[in-house]
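User:
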Amino acid sequence: TSFKALKDLMENNSKILIIMPAYNESASIGSVISEVRKEVPHADILVINDGSRDATSQIAKDLRVNVVDLLYNMGIGAAMQTGYRYAELNNYEIAVQLDADGQHPPDQLKYLITPIIEQRADIVIGSRFLGKGEYNPSMARNIGIKVFSVVVSFLTGQSVTDTTSGFRAVNKDVIKFFAKNYPDDYPEVEAIVMLRKAGFNIMEVPVRMEARAGGVSSITPLRSLYYMVKVLLAVFVDILKKVER
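Assistant: Predicted structure:
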């Protein structure tokens, strides 16, 4: 599907919401919002301000996008579930998670949205490791990514190369599912297992990602180890739980 065909589909058929979780992203959020508007002008943008202490919320409001201000920093899981609940309440057909720090280039959105519009997948995950594979993580992060890929691929029976990618598009059925069921901490890996167990169709597509445009990552080497252990435990617990659509 060409981008023109995608644009026509978006204009005529689909109500799309870009969910942008943000915590202290005043250095980058303005340019990210502007780029999203340029690439997908018919999509709506919702910023979930996750208790930022800087001007993140005001910058977004000045650019006239909808903003939900969480009272304190609740984490990515709570921020995204807030976005999915908003999407469900407002009857959106497609929701896309796009980070406010500039790591998810808006010119890649078309690769995520197209398979959803064409009904080839329920969720499309942007992978840094398909295609040319230009992403080079730190050694600690690389180990975690590979461990998650092996475990999730084994548990779901489907090869998943980039389980930690937060660059994702989902259809209306997944919006409803995530509005009710969404993991708390570091949810990306766990959400894949939950979706597969509930019978959703998962697809990965190659995307380009960038270094952060501003701000500081919350993932340190020690947190990477904690993250890996905690997420693996959560994933194995999810396998034992009953999941309903």
